[in-house]
Amino acid sequence: MSAHTVTVFPASGGIGGGTVKHLLPRLQAKDLVFIARNPGNLAAEPNAGATVRKADYDDDSSLEHAFDGVHTLFLISYASAEHEYRTKRQQLAIDAAIRSGVKYIFYGSLGYGGRPETKESVAHVMQAHLDTERYLDGCTRRHPGFEYTIIREGLYSESYPLYTSFFDPASPSSTIKIPHDGSGPGIAWVKRKELGEGTAELLARFVKNPNDFQYRRQTALLSGGKTLTLKESVEILSKLAKRPVQIETITEDEFAALPQNQQNFTYHGMDYSKLWTSTFEAFRRGEGAYVDPLLKELLGREPEDFETTVSLQWL
């Protein structure tokens, strides 16, 4: 393999798939390794010449040699709202990568906290990310020569159901029941595919000129270009649904009791819907509202706005 092989794991899914798509025209395919739990999901990608491997966050043995021959790894977070379990799986993957000789990890974190230098958040879903960010920093002291970059991927527009009690455009309700009145600091929504594109550009810049890369042991935040309050976001959903939709403020317990929330926030048999309400407190504190110009610079254009992304998603 090349002296600088780049790997994406997991390479399927939203962020992974988008990053794979945009890495291929930027780097030589022979220097790319794409790892997925179901490698067949990568078959549709134009990845001729790239190496495809199988590994699963939940299978320790599959991780043991998954990263052999790799210099730089883009590690996308374990998909869950859990804390301790998620942290453990990510740390095991990091340890396996370092044992295999990986010298640099880009970690796909999440865009809570506000400014990129912020090291805390009230959002439960952010805690495993913060643990992993700290763990990577500790690895630089335990493993000389190892370095990292944190990429806080902004809250993507397509994830609006998580913050609207799973509003369904195919059968729109007239009220969105959440423990928030819709006012105050909002969300710098960002298109998921553009996060993949921006991440691929950041990785390519590192590979092509690692000595001048400015985000060594730093955090890069990829956000949308405009902040919308939850009320403004719901007004756009109402417009696209072609019916009046309003926010109804409810308690955290009432939110957690809604069947659709219980169903969608259950992981490994545990219901996280009550803990998920901490995201609304994070919004009240402005944790999702910070607009960073980095993604615009990486894309070479303005990031797509929330209304355009969601309207295309509904087509």
From TrEMBL:
Superkingdom, taxonomy of origin: Eukaryota
Database matches in Gene3D superfamilies: NAD(P)-binding Rossmann-like Domain, UDP-galactose 4-epimerase, domain 1
SUPFAM superfamilies, alphabetized: NAD(P)-binding Rossmann-fold domains
UniProt cross-references to Pfam families, sorted A to Z: NmrA
Transmembrane segments: none
Domain NmrA-like: 4-264
Protein name as catalogued: NAD(P)-binding protein
Species: Aspergillus sclerotiicarbonarius (strain CBS 121057 / IBT 28362)
Lineage: Eukaryota, Fungi, Dikarya, Ascomycota, Pezizomycotina
